[in-house]
User: What shape does this take?
Amino acid sequence: MTVPRAFPLVPTSIHVPDEVLDDLRARLALTRPPVDEGNEDWSYGVPAACLRELVAYWRDGYDWRKAEAAINAHEHYQVSVDGVPVHFMRKPGRGPRPVPLILTHGWPWTFWHWSRVIGPLADPAAFGGDPADAFDVIVPSLPGFGFPGPLTGFPDVNFWKVADLWHTLMTETLGYEKYAAGGCDIGGIVSSQLGHKYADELYGIHIGSGLPLDFFTGPRAWDFARNRPLGDDQPADIRARVIEQDHRWASHLAVHMLDGATLAHGLSDSPAGLLAWLLERWNGWSDNGGDLESVFTRDDLLTHATIFWVNNSIATSMRYYANANRYPWTPAHDRTPVVQAPVGLTFVTYENPPGIHTAEERVRAFKTGPQADWFNHVNVNAHDHGGHFIPWENPDAWVSDLRRTFQGRRP
Assistant: This one.
């Protein structure tokens, strides 16, 4: 085994000041719930009774210091990249030639949503795997999503600008000559942009969706339906799926793109309001079969929510949507496919488009559809289990798929 090179930065542990946690508890104690009759089934949004119980636990039972200790079991770093403060978590690879791998989260994720896959990726032998598959895992917080604190001086933050930051971080700051990238949701298009603009300096990318890089371009980019007709002549299952997905995604996309700053005034002032907005997505977007705690325990939910709260990051996290449209993506080259680095994809049937029912159909629909033309896809997989938060909900599938993407593509 080769001797690993010295890492160029000094670790800095995560620590939230006591006064910030005291302020959080004081605000939770003063929560005024809305009138919410007839909403026990979540049909109007998050029920007041459900939120009341979770708010009480956040105030009196949840232990951030315990979560903080678990987070600090990993290495953490803070560094300025082109003037932007960046936090990232790292787990060094244990193997003969670990490949540098940067994993980027989405919304409403935090860096901690990657916590279930970094061990198997960095130290595969400890999990029954082959040490030759090891990665040196870098897990940053998207700027404005959490640590190292409230993001200022970057009001035009969006996915393709972060891709430039990540490339500088990996090559200039950390000194990697070549690296791999992975991501889901916003992190998926950050990774796709890396595979588009910096293909020659990447071993490849692995993503959890096949969104094209121009997804947020155009005057009605906030319309999740994308002008898709809803007619009476459609098969019942397709019509039902269109309506279901509109209910799941439409308000989120439209509000974040059109009115995020207005919403943020309430969510930055009220931790209960912040929790409700996040909770609706964690519930609706995860494959939980009606039992949210089968995916996220109460402590899991509140750890992610606390990361958002203590860093006052809800406004800047939502800003990514509007800025992807306001500062639209433009190609760095005209070669095809657009994303020329080798691309692996992991899909889950919980997010199947209308008319697609099985994992096999999902793979076939992608390969024969227009989105495939964007990617130099070398490994496409779909799984029956898991929702939007794939590496949290189905970590084994994510790790297995990602390893397969890079087999034969290591130094």
Observations:
- Residues 236-258 form the longest helix (23 residues).
- The chain has one domain: 18-24+46-406.
